[in-house]
C-alpha cells in the first residue's frame, strides 16, 4: 500500500483542514460540548458535501469507493480538528458492515443516506458484562411472524442520540447464531438514555423491551452477525488510529507554540534543553503512532485473518500508549493551565485518553493479539 498522498488525497486533506480552521473552531466546539450536544446537522451536511461521509461507500450508492489509504488521510485531519460528529460509528463502521454484508435493499436505503448526510447509523454491541467481547451477547431476538422481537440492554452506544437506527447484536432464539439487526431508534419499545462522555461526546444506554423489527432488518444471514460486526470494528480501529495520530500531531504543535511564547528567567521555555528533550520524545511517540496507523490501514487488505488481527490489535495498543504519553506530557508542559477550560490542550488530552477504551482497551487487544499468535 502506497501511503504517499495522491493529488486527490492531498486536495481532500487541504479542503478538510480549511473547513476545520474556518468553520469548526475551538470556541464553537467547546460551546456545543458545554450545551450538552455533540452533533450539529449543518456540520454533518458539510462533511457530506466534502465527500467525507461517502468516501469508502461504493459509487453505486452515492459514494466515492475509496480505500483505507484515503480513509487514513481523512481521519488524520478529523483528529487534528477534534471533530465530535459520529463519522467513525456511521461512515466507517456501519458503512463497512453494510457495504460487505448488507442486502441490496439495505445498501440502497442506508448507504446512499449515509453518503448524502441524510441518515446516521451507530453500533450497539456492548453490554454491561461483555468486557469488549463481541460474542458476549445476552440480548435475544425471537422470531415472530415475518420479523423478530428483541429484548435486552446495550451499553455505551456511541452517538446513539444522533442516530436514525442502530446495528444491534442479538442471539437468535432457537439457534446458536448471533445476528446483527438494523433497529430504528424511533421504533416502539426502544428507549435511549443519553449521557456525556469524558471527552465531550455523547453515548447512551439502549433498552429493548419487545422491540419489533421486520425480517429485512437482519444484516446478511443469521450466521453472519459476528463476522459482520468484527469487519466493521476492524475498520473502526484503523480509523481511530489515524484520528489519534492526527490529534497528537496537532497537540504537539500547540505545545510547541506554548513553549515558544511562555517565558521564564528572561527566555522562552523552549530554550531549556530538558523541555526540548521532552518535546522530542513526544514527537517520536507521534511518529510511532502514525506508523502504526499505516499498519492498521494496511491490515484491512490483509487476507489472512490471524495476521489481520495481529496488525490491528498491535496498532491499537501502541497508538493508545503513545496517545496517553503525548497527552500527559502536553498537560505537564503547559503546567496547571493544561487542564483549564481556557486552553484546548485539555480537550486533546481527554480525547486521547478515551481512545484506549474505544473498540477494546489495551488489555483486551493484548489478549486478542496473543490468541492470534497461537497456531
From TrEMBL:
<dbReference type="Pfam" id="PF02770">
    <property type="entry name" value="Acyl-CoA_dh_M"/>
</dbReference>
<dbReference type="InterPro" id="IPR009100">
    <property type="entry name" value="AcylCoA_DH/oxidase_NM_dom_sf"/>
</dbReference>
<dbReference type="InterPro" id="IPR006091">
    <property type="entry name" value="Acyl-CoA_Oxase/DH_mid-dom"/>
</dbReference>
<dbReference type="GO" id="GO:0050660">
    <property type="term" value="F:flavin adenine dinucleotide binding"/>
</dbReference>
<feature type="domain" description="Acyl-CoA oxidase/dehydrogenase middle">
    <location>
        <begin position="126"/>
        <end position="207"/>
    </location>
</feature>
<dbReference type="InterPro" id="IPR009075">
    <property type="entry name" value="AcylCo_DH/oxidase_C"/>
</dbReference>
<feature type="domain" description="Acyl-CoA dehydrogenase/oxidase C-terminal">
    <location>
        <begin position="224"/>
        <end position="367"/>
    </location>
</feature>
<comment type="similarity">
    <text>Belongs to the acyl-CoA dehydrogenase family.</text>
</comment>
<dbReference type="InterPro" id="IPR036250">
    <property type="entry name" value="AcylCo_DH-like_C"/>
</dbReference>
<protein>
    <submittedName>
        <fullName>Acyl-CoA dehydrogenase</fullName>
    </submittedName>
</protein>
<keyword id="KW-0274">FAD</keyword>
<feature type="domain" description="Acyl-CoA dehydrogenase/oxidase N-terminal">
    <location>
        <begin position="6"/>
        <end position="118"/>
    </location>
</feature>
<dbReference type="Pfam" id="PF02771">
    <property type="entry name" value="Acyl-CoA_dh_N"/>
</dbReference>
<keyword id="KW-0560">Oxidoreductase</keyword>
<dbReference type="Pfam" id="PF00441">
    <property type="entry name" value="Acyl-CoA_dh_1"/>
</dbReference>
<keyword id="KW-0285">Flavoprotein</keyword>
<dbReference type="InterPro" id="IPR037069">
    <property type="entry name" value="AcylCoA_DH/ox_N_sf"/>
</dbReference>
<dbReference type="InterPro" id="IPR046373">
    <property type="entry name" value="Acyl-CoA_Oxase/DH_mid-dom_sf"/>
</dbReference>
<dbReference type="GO" id="GO:0003995">
    <property type="term" value="F:acyl-CoA dehydrogenase activity"/>
</dbReference>
<dbReference type="InterPro" id="IPR013786">
    <property type="entry name" value="AcylCoA_DH/ox_N"/>
</dbReference>
Amino acid at each position: 500500500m502506497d501511503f504517499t498522498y495522491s493529488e486527490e488525497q492531498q486536495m481532500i486533506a487541504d479542503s478538510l483542514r480549511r473547513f476545520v480552521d474556518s468553520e469548526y473552531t475551538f470556541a464553537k466546539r467547546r460551546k456545543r460540548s458545554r450545551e450538552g450536544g455533540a452533533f450539529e446537522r449543518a456540520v454533518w451536511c458539510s462533511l457530506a458535501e466534502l465527500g467525507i461521509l461517502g468516501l469508502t461507500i461504493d459509487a453505486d450508492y452515492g459514494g466515492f469507493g475509496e480505500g483505507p489509504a484515503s480513509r487514513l488521510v481523512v481521519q488524520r485531519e478529523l483528529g487534528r480538528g477534534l471533530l465530535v460528529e459520529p463519522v467513525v460509528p456511521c461512515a466507517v463502521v456501519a458503512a463497512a458492515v453494510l457495504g460487505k454484508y448488507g442486502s441490496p435493499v439495505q445498501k440502497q436505503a442506508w448507504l446512499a443516506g449515509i453518503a448524502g448526510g441524510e441518515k446516521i447509523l451507530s453500533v450497539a454491541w456492548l453490554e454491561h458484562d461483555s468486557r469488549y467481547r463481541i460474542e458476549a451477547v445476552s440480548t435475544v431476538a425471537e422470531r415472530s411472524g415475518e420479523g423478530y422481537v428483541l429484548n435486552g440492554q446495550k451499553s455505551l452506544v456511541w452517538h446513539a442520540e444522533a442516530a436514525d437506527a442502530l446495528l444491534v447484536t442479538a442471539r437468535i432464539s432457537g439457534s446458536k447464531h448471533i445476528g446483527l439487526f438494523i433497529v430504528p431508534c424511533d421504533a416502539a419499545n426502544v428507549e435511549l438514555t443519553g449521557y456525556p462522555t469524558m471527552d465531550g461526546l455523547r453515548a447512551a444506554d439502549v433498552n429493548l423491551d419487545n422491540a419489533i423489527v421486520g425480517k429485512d432488518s437482519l444484516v446478511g444471514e443469521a450466521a453472519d452477525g459476528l463476522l459482520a460486526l468484527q469487519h466493521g470494528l476492524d475498520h473502526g480501529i484503523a480509523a481511530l488510529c489515524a484520528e489519534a495520530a492526527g490529534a497528537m500531531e496537532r497537540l504537539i504543535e500547540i505545545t510547541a507554540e506554548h513553549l515558544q511564547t511562555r517565558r521564564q528567567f528572561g527566555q522562552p521555555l523552549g530554550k531549556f534543553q530538558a523541555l526540548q528533550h521532552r518535546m522530542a520524545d513526544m514527537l517520536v511517540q507521534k511518529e510511532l503512532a502514525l506508523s502504526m496507523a499505516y499498519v492498521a490501514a494496511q491490515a484491512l487488505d490483509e487476507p489472512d485473518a490471524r495476521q489481520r488481527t495481529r496488525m490491528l490489535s498491535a496498532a491499537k495498543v501502541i497508538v493508545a500508549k503513545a496517545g496517553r504519553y503525548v497527552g500527559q506530557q502536553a498537560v505537564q508542559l503547559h503546567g496547571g493551565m493544561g487542564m483549564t477550560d481556557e486552553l484546548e490542550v485539555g480537550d486533546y488530552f481527554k480525547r486521547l485518553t478515551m481512545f484506549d477504551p474505544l473498540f477494546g482497551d489495551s488489555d483486551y487487544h493484548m489478549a486478542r493479539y496473543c490468541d492470534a499468535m497461537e497456531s
